[in-house]
Amino acid sequence: MAVCARLCAVGSARGCRLRQQQHQHGEAEPEEEEERIEGPDLGPAEPPSSPPPRRSLLQLPPELLVEIFASLPGPELPNLAQVCKKFRQILSTDTIWRRRCREEYGVCENLRKLEITGVSCRDVYVKLLHRYRHILGLWQPDIGPYGGLLNVVVDGLFIIGWMYLPPHDPHVDEPMRLKPLFRIHLMERKAATVECMYGHKGPHNGHIQIVKKDEFSTKCNQTDYHRMSGGRQEEFRTWLREEWGRTLEDIFHEHMQELILMKFIYTSQYDNCLTYRRIYHPPCSSEDLLQAGLFKGTYGSHGLEIIMLSFHGTSAKGTKLTGDPNVPAGQQTMDVDLTRRVQLPDLERLRNFEVLSRIILEIQEQVHREQQQDELGEVDGVRQDMRNPPKLEAASEEEEGESAEGESGGSATGQPFELPMGVMARNEEYPRTCKMCFYGTGLIAGHGFTSPERTPGVFILFDEDRFGFIWLELKSFSLYSRIRDTFQNAEAPSREAFDDMLKSMQSWTT
């Protein structure tokens, strides 16, 4: 403590607490152990003529102190300001807070223009960025079975909540559509302003409340901004053009019309208040079959939906971020067994659905037999292939030989692929070569998530950014394409935290 006091040059003037307490109780001050440096014996040393000068941070030039303080984390600076009056004065320098805004939150805007409005860089850091730091990252809105994907980011001098919407069905390879739901910024020195961006009449008054850890809610205080002069009919037609890119007259399938109308009615009741729960980007590993991440995929009459592909040792799981009345958001849409490689037949026989179906059902029967053996305790050890899940680049000599004979599961260079006759595909522009195929199960259910059942299927890996899944029982094919956006503040603190999040997501919409 005494050393700290001398460093800041406040020991002689103010004294440290320990020294003051010792003087009050009449105790002797403990002697400080001096650092001893060994060297040649030069004889008795002469006593110094004067004590060595004390060194202090306060003796440094102010510009050097500004540079030192600017390199410290922003949350530590308020404590530093309590050391002395000079530190407090230096910490009011905007250069320090401008650097903190840039390094901690990526604000690259010219913050000097804030001087016109009387807002300082310190105000931006303390009242905007640091205050709302807990809502940055990825979130799933609580919109019943439909879910969604919200990305809250620092955008210039704003914090903006962007809702990620899939491209119009069935164009799965097109980029995501972004729609702002709210924004936060500083209009004056007093406090940050929250604005709702829903509707077509511009920003208006809103409110954000952090409910608890990893959960917050938004509320619109001027819902009249959401209404249109033409009433609900005009609102529905506008929503239909934005959501589906077409009019109701363009959709001839009655079942699809019912699903669209149902979604509009259900989601429109959440236009003034929403709750969001934090989600994480799936962790990635060099051992994974392909890079984990977020993908958009085709789901028949339900349109395009967003899923999260994650790897868990010998399995890959696809979890819905957006859902539908049959299988809601948060549920595991597919489970792929990476130890069960599917050897596809040649292209001519692959066109016959019965051939593929027989191959997959045989694997399913084998899985059931092994599960029964496990339950009866008749398995003596773990299968070798369970310990060594395949990699994308790996292709054994045996598989290469099979490829020459026309019966291969695919190698790193790919093999011809075509959907069997009778399998429905929303998007016919799927790749005509694939790298690997694996046995998996897909989740299907009735309306309202009734009678959910995992049914067999085939996971087809096309390349690093696209894969497909054939739902055997539905005779349906889903094509998935990677969402290429970069997401900040979305990394899970640990693998356990990510796994816990996946479990929680299933309970949110069940």
UniProtKB/TrEMBL annotation:
GO BP field: DNA damage response; protein ubiquitination; SCF-dependent proteasomal ubiquitin-dependent protein catabolic process
Protein localization: Cytoplasm
Domain of life of the source: Eukaryota
Name under which the protein is recorded: F-box only protein 31 isoform X2
Region annotation (Disordered) ranges: 19-56, 367-418
Comp. bias intervals (Pro residues): 45-54
Functional description taken from the UniProt entry: Substrate-recognition component of the SCF(FBXO31) protein ligase complex, which specifically mediates the ubiquitination of proteins amidated at their C-terminus in response to oxidative stress, leading to their degradation by the proteasome. Fbxo31 specifically recognizes and binds C-terminal peptides bearing an amide: C-terminal amidation in response to oxidative stress takes place following protein fragmentation.
Keyword terms: Cell cycle, Cytoplasm, DNA damage, Ubl conjugation pathway
Pathway where it operates: Protein modification; protein ubiquitination
Cross-referenced PROSITE patterns: FBOX
Protein's organism: Microcaecilia unicolor
Chief localization: cytoplasm
InterPro entries: F-box-like_dom_sf, F-box_dom, FBXO31/39
A GO-annotated cellular component: cytoplasm
Compositional bias segments (type: Acidic residues): 395-405
